[in-house]
Design goal:
- Keywords: Membrane, Transmembrane, Transmembrane helix.
- InterPro entries: Acyl_transf_3_dom, Glucan_succinyl_AcylTrfase.
- One of its GO terms (molecular function) is acyltransferase activity, transferring groups other than amino-acyl groups.
- The chain has one domain.
- The two termini are 33 Å apart.
- It is built from 16 helices and no strands.
- Helix 4 runs antiparallel to helix 7 and helix 11 packs across helix 13.
- It is an all-alpha fold.
Length: 387
């Protein structure tokens, strides 16, 4: 149903507990009520967040030379999984966050929006960076350097020598909290653009463009991506994805177009992913590298938006719980993962037993952490958790 149509009478849907904004997409930016809930945006978000956990577990077995906090041994199958996920899953989170922001701004003042960003992004970033990343550095030092000091001594060492880095611990390390910092900065920078440019961008009517023209947006994305390349991601590129989502892809018409073309987008995306895995390590970097990266990423975002709208635009108790808890799972998972992996690779010989053990225990401990923290006012405040 188009956003300009009147809403049918009925009970008002509940406000969702989303990953990064806590705002259900019940209003368009122009203040017009939207009759159709965008549950697929919530579902794409928590699915991508949960994907981060096996992705990080399998980094303990990567074959592409990445020095993760703890490292077991190279396992090609696990590396293939990571290579298939890396091009698109974090960019997708920035893209859907831009869409959710447009919906949120439909029913929030600027002051409310900024206060929400502060409470759900900046404060959890600071809490996680101060409380959790030194713990990950502790186990990295024990793993790579045989560090014999205690946890408290490591905290002092971590903040005293934050810029020096060590093996497995990059300089200025904030762990997975980089996403919160990026999203906070992008949310603030995008606010005036979303406010001022929405009407002009709406006149472009991307839903009337042919599919190939929408796909060609990877070219400017490639240009922007090269302005501020990662690691962990290009800040300029993530900003561009956020704006694309927030300015254009919040409309029913464009989302329905992607849903109708979902499989036409999915097949070339799958082919590009497989080709990228096959060429890993065989193709040196060149001027075309950011454009190839942007092509795979953009085709993935379009395909998954279409598939999501078509197949996962629903809600049930499980999806609501995962949507509410995914933010905390993202914050907590990596500290648990590194600690569990440190002991698992020393006590379990086979990687085929190590990896599922690490994954299962990491997920269980992260869920327990969420359940514990949401019951205390202080930890809810620190980690941006709803009651």
């Amino acid at each position: 149903m188009d956003a300009t149509q009147s809403r049918q009478p009925g009970p008002r849907p509940p406000v969702r507990a989303g990953f990064d904004d806590g705002a259900g997409p019940t209003l368009f930016f122009h203040g017009v009520q939207n009759a159709m809930r965008k549950y697929f945006i919530d579902n794409l978000r928590w699915m991508s967040v949960l994907l981060v956990i096996p992705y990080h577990v399998f980094l303990c077995y990567n074959t592409f030379g990445y020095e993760y906090y703890v490292y077991a041994m190279p396992v090609q199958v696990f590396s293939v999984f990571d290579l298939l996920c890396a091009p698109w899953f974090m960019p997708l989170l920035f893209f859907v966050s831009g869409i959710s922001t447009t919906y949120a701004l439909g029913k929030r003042t600027n002051r409310q929006y900024l206060a929400e960003r502060l409470g759900k992004l900046l404060i959890p970033f600071l809490a996680g960076a101060i409380l959790l990343t030194p713990l990950m550095a502790y186990y990295a030092r024990k793993h790579y350097e045989g560090y014999a000091g205690g946890v408290w001594e490591n905290y002092i060492l971590f903040f005293r020598h934050w810029t020096t880095g060590s093996k497995g611990v990059p300089p200025y390390e904030v762990g997975q909290m980089w996403f919160l910092l990026y999203l906070f900065a992008i949310s603030l920078a995008a606010l005036p653009i979303l406010k001022l440019a929405r009407e002009g961008c709406g006149r472009l009517r991307l839903e009337l463009w042919p599919l190939w023209a929408i796909a060609l947006l990877f070219v400017p994305l490639g240009c922007v991506w090269d302005l501020m390349p990662g690691p962990p991601q290009s800040l300029a590129g993530c900003f561009a994805l956020f704006l694309l989502g927030g300015l254009f892809f919040h409309t029913d018409a464009l989302q329905e177009k992607l849903a109708r073309q979902a499989w036409r987008l999915s097949f070339p995306f799958a082919a590009l992913l497989l080709a990228g895995v096959a060429l890993t390590g065989r193709l040196g970097p060149g001027w075309w590298s950011p454009y190839l990266q942007a092509l795979v990423m953009w085709m993935g975002i379009l395909a998954l938006m279409g598939l999501g709208r078509r197949y996962v635009n629903f809600t049930n108790p499980v999806t609501r719980y995962l949507s509410a808890s995914s933010f905390a799972l993202y914050i907590f998972h990596q500290a648990w993962l590194v600690m569990i992996a440190f002991y698992a690779i020393r006590s379990i010989a086979s990687p085929w037993l190590q990896a599922p053990t690490i994954l299962g225990l990491c997920l269980a401990c992260s869920l327990v952490s969420y359940e514990a923290c949401r019951r205390l006012a202080l930890t809810r405040f620190l980690f941006g958790i709803k009651r």
